[in-house]
Amino acid sequence: MLALARNEGQSIIIDGTIEVKVVKWSRSSVRLAIQAPREVRVDRDETWRKMNPGKMTPLEVAEKERNERFAREGESGTGAPSAKRTPAEGEIAITAPAAGVFHRPEGDAAVRVGDAVEATTIVGHIISDEDTIPIPAGTAGILTRVLVNSGQTVAAGDALLLVKT
């Protein structure tokens, strides 16, 4: 999940085809304008829940899958510090080059635990207000652990992933 702060008149673009614009906001509500292709269904949460009783929302499904994935990779999925964040012998931490929100690639571009990486392999990005900064592995080896959830805010220098050289 990506959480953003937006002001009135500002938008986000999803997959180059969907625009969500903040039209007006107040203390108790926000008014959004959503422009999407006709084949993309857009429902309010309460409407979707009435039409799909007992089903998890797409966001709930994604959160569950994300937590299960991190559990399989040996992480709690909460982003909380743990003993597992300490590099073992022969492991090198890939650190955040700047403060911002950490994102890992998905699909075919994703580097998974157990995958080999080269120094130039992009293992994620830091998104800040000013820029999107790619994060190269910086060393050749095998990705052994993911320490930070995609979408989590990090500080410059925070350990993100571990690579065994």
Mind sketching the topology for me?
Elements: E1 11-14, E2 18-25, E3 30-35, H1 45-51, H2 58-72, E4 91-95, E5 100-103, E6 116-117, E7 122-127, E8 132-136, E9 141-146, E10 153-154, E11 159-164
Antiparallel strand pairs: 1-2, 2-3, 4-11, 5-7, 5-10, 6-9, 7-8, 9-11
Task: Put the structure in a nutshell.
The protein has 165 residues and is α+β, with helices and mostly antiparallel strands. Helices cover 13% and strands 33% of the residues.
Query: Rg from C-alpha positions?
Result: 19 Å
In the CATH hierarchy, what is the architecture of the largest domain at level 2?
Answer: Beta Barrel
CATH superfamily caption of the largest domain: RNA polymerase II/Efflux pump adaptor protein, barrel-sandwich hybrid domain
Strand content: 25-35%
What is the 3D form? globular
Kindly report how far apart the N and C termini lie.
Answer: 31 Å
Low-pLDDT runs: 75-83
Order of helices and strands: EEEHHEEEEEEEE
CATH fold-level topology of the largest domain:
OB fold (Dihydrolipoamide Acetyltransferase, E2P)
Count of DSSP strands: 11
Q: What's the domain count?
A: 2
- Total number of helices: 2
**Secondary structure category:** alpha+beta
For the residues shown, what is the average pLDDT? 84
CATH class of the largest domain: Mainly Beta
Helix residue percentage:
10-25%
Spatial arrangement of strands, main beta sheet: 4-11-9-6
Largest sheet: 4 strands, antiparallel
Please tell me about this protein's structure.
The structure is a single chain. The chain contains two helices and eleven strands; from the N terminus they run βββααββββββββ. It has helices at residues 45-51, 58-72, and strands at 11-14, 18-25, 30-35, 91-95, 100-103, 116-117, 122-127, 132-136, 141-146, 153-154, 159-164. It is globular.
